Amino acid sequence: MLSLLISVLASIALVGALTATDINRPTTIFFGIAGFIASFILVGFLVRKKVEKVQNELQEIMMGGQKRMNRKVQQFQNKPGGNIKLLQRQIEADQKVVYKQGLDFTERLEPFKKWSFLMGRQIATLRMQFLYQLKEFDQVDEILAAGGLFRGPMMMEPMQVAMKMARQYKNKDVAGAEKTFKRRIKWFRGDRGTLLYGLMSWIFVKEGDPEKARQLLIKAKDATGNETFTRNWELLSNDKVKSFSNAGLGEEWYGLYLENPPTPKQQRVRGNAKGRRF
Fold it and tell me: What does the CA dihedral 193, 194, 199, 200 come to, rounded to 10 degrees?
């Protein structure tokens, strides 16, 4: 990495200058180490500021797209009787455009890989999430399989872990999904573990092991306090496996594309023969 190389060269130059002035060895070593650390911090700070600027641009793209979609939804809600299926198709198309823009934008971060040890993983993480939302699952699997200290995606957020677990399940690696869950859930305290508990219990149910799901839900409802887990635990305790549902987890759950969200009910407009609304 260039930041490390620059720091080493700065340290060597400083040591050389101090040696030429006949300063004693302990002092020379001390300032050599201090020079390395100071150079590394300074270069890291300058690079981080440039990276933040690019990341802020990416954030603006995502927020701008979300605002446009929110306006469409609000306009639809203000005009009862609209075509809900048409709105859904429009929102899905808009989301695809935004995710594609985000994916293309990650190329802007590539030059920073030579400056930062972790930039490669940060880029892989972003690409994995955008590709997942675009349903390019083969490419998601490739990124997850790459792994490595400097290449594999980071698993710092519940959604990132959930995406990995979902792909393991879809690739018929239930044991792998359970291993990922057990390894990562301890890092997400309180309600941060909600999505992972919901996903793992759902996998157990789908794999025909509702008792294992029920036992997990005991921990889930105590750890998160989420009412969805309490309800699912009660259903499984009363042998109502078919009624098990993670719908209460909302958009995050449906964002994994394991189940389709329910179609919103069409708003009805009542009126007389002349079309006047009441």
Answer: 50
Say what the pTM is: 0.78
Smallest Cα–Cα separation from 109: which of 98, 128, 99, 124? Answer: 124
Taking only the tens place, the pLDDT of each residue in 33-58 is 776 677 667 666 677 787 788 878 88
Number of domains in the chain: 1
Does a structural domain hold residue 164? yes
* Residue 144 exposure: Cα atoms within 13 Å on the Cβ side: 24
- pLDDT bin (cut points 50, 70, 90) of residue 8 is low
Residue 130 C-alpha from the chain's centroid:
9
Residues 189-207 have pLDDT tens digits of: 989 999 999 999 999 999 9
Q: Is residue 18 domain-resident?
A: no
User: Across the chain, what does the average pLDDT equal?
Assistant: 83
Angle at which helices 2-20 and 25-77 cross, to 10°: 150
Residue span of the structural domain in which 190 resides: 155-259
Q: In this structure, is residue 81 part of a structural domain?
A: no
Q: Which has the closest alpha carbon to 98: 138, 157, 58?
A: 58
Which pair of tokens denotes residue 147? 């792994």
In a domain, 190, yes or no: yes
Here the tokens at position 150 are: 């400097």
